[in-house]
Design a protein that fits this description.
The protein is mainly alpha-helical. The protein is built from ten helices and no strands.
Length: about 210
């Protein structure tokens, strides 16, 4: 029994969910359908059925399938941005920052809901509103990493942004590759390998005002 079905079973008949709770329920059902079927194959009928509601109820909250998809993207793009920012703020030790940031990406792709597929493997990237959100998550994660690099080194903002984009792209691509390889390497070990690779590169740039790494 899914979490949605458990919630429905536990609630007395005839009661109505508060609007926010209903919206979250619909988003959860939509995520399951979009991840399993992709945007184009998914139907509002499928989502309503998965949520256990009528189509009119679904349309009360989301005027169309694209609105529903974009709401999910907003939610899950923000989740990764906050995870990366949290990793960077979790320590002042730059070596540990690199590791924490790599782990944030691995945790994101490993989430059992598969939300990362909506962000990084969408079949709707030609839609401008979707492309805008996908670009935003990459850019904002890179900006967060860039802030640390620029503050700690003598590199310019533009140079720091290039390095930050490289680190973010490396983490995202390798984390997805790791997941698609059926996690043949344990996550802890995979994160450590990637963090070691990234640290050996970024540590080559000395701290601002210091000759030491």
């Amino acid at each position: 029994m899914t979490a949605i079905e458990q919630t429905e079973a536990a609630r007395p008949r005839g009661t109505r969910l508060p609007r926010r709770a209903r919206r979250n329920q619909l988003l959860g059902a939509a995520q399951e359908v979009f991840v399993a079927q992709g945007y184009h194959a998914a139907a509002m009928d499928d989502i309503a059925e998965r949520a256990g509601v009528s189509k009119p109820v679904l349309y009360q909250h989301f005027p169309g399938k694209l609105d529903l998809y974009l709401a999910l993207l907003d939610q899950h793009c923000e989740a990764l941005i906050q995870a990366v920012r949290g990793a960077l703020e979790s320590t002042t030790d730059n070596k540990q920052r690199v590791r924490a940031t790599m782990d944030a990406y691995f945790a994101y792709v490993e989430d059992e809901g598969g939300a990362f597929r909506l962000v990084f493997e969408s079949d709707l990237t030609n839609e401008p509103a979707v492309r805008e959100r996908v670009d935003k998550v990459s850019n904002e994660c890179a900006e967060a990493i860039c802030d640390v690099i620029a503050e700690d080194t003598g590199l310019s903002r533009a140079e720091s942004m290039l390095l930050a984009s490289g680190l973010g792209g490396l983490a995202q691509v390798v984390a997805r590759s790791w997941l698609h390889s059926d996690r043949s390497v344990p996550r802890e070990q995979a994160v450590q390998l990637l963090a070691s690779l990234a640290w050996r590169g970024i540590a080559g740039f000395p701290l601002h005002g210091s000759e030491h790494h």
